[in-house]
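User: I'm preparing a small set of examples for a lab meeting where we compare how different chains pack in three dimensions. I only have the primary sequence for this one, and I'd like the structure in token form so I can line it up with the others. Please keep the answer compact; I'll paste it straight into my notes.
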Amino acid sequence: MPRTPTLHTDRPSGPVATHEVRGGGGLALDVREWGDPQGPPVVLIHGWSQCQLCWSRQVTGPLAAELRIVTFDLRGHGGSAQPLDAGSYTDAGLWADDLAAVIEHLGLDRPVLVGWSYGGFVATDYLRAYGADGIAGLNLVGGAVLRTAAFDHIGPGLLDNAAAACDPDLSVAVPAIARFLRACTARELDAGDRDLALSWNAVVAPQVRGALLAREIDGDDVLSGLSVPVLVSHGRRDTIVLPSMAEHVLDVCPTARASWYDDAGHMPFLEDPRRFDDELRAFVGVGAPRL
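Assistant: Understood. Below is the structure token output for the 291-residue chain.
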């Protein structure tokens, strides 16, 4: 039986509800709702070794006044269950079922999916298994849609640190994650954001990081057949998922259009949150950009 959501009526800046949702294989997912429960639904999907706290600017800012925002921790991340066997992460069907379970449990009517980094893989896993009829659009944010044996379109910010970040020796893994986080933005994060990001990365087991990177994934079959609109938000200075990945999406997907962030790296939603929020609002079709 699904657990009754916990309502938070006394915390206007926090989630309006939290849920434990059973995803693929029955794995427990930590899911939170933010903003206007009657607003158009948006599901924010975080990236490799991260957690839903990365969306703090979006869920506690002006965007939440108009949208029903749903965040969740991917399997193996944050407050979701963290099995250590590789099979819990290498099966595309499990990832698809996770997102489908979140959408179904919360009764989301044609949400917009926002996939950051590895979240692009999760979104295409879902679309391959369940189709696009149940969504209104897809926003790929520094989104990864290909993971080839040669790591095409993946940059040195990840490749130079990935092996160490997956080492079970924390004295090796933690410094690698710190280097990876520094590479995620064009300018160094302030101390508060940096410490928080390092903390949520630290709760992800190195074995989980390694299992995610072991997948070879090709989302071209999904993207080439999409009829829903796709917004490709990408930093020109991204050294994690290279701008060439975004160019690839634009070449393959007939409904895709680009929004380039000239002075941002891999986290435009954090590096330029006002612009990011305005563009997401416009993409969802709510109001006009704030001046």
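A couple of notes for your slides: The longest strand covers residues 28-35. Residues 92-105 form the longest helix (14 residues).

User: Perfect, thanks.
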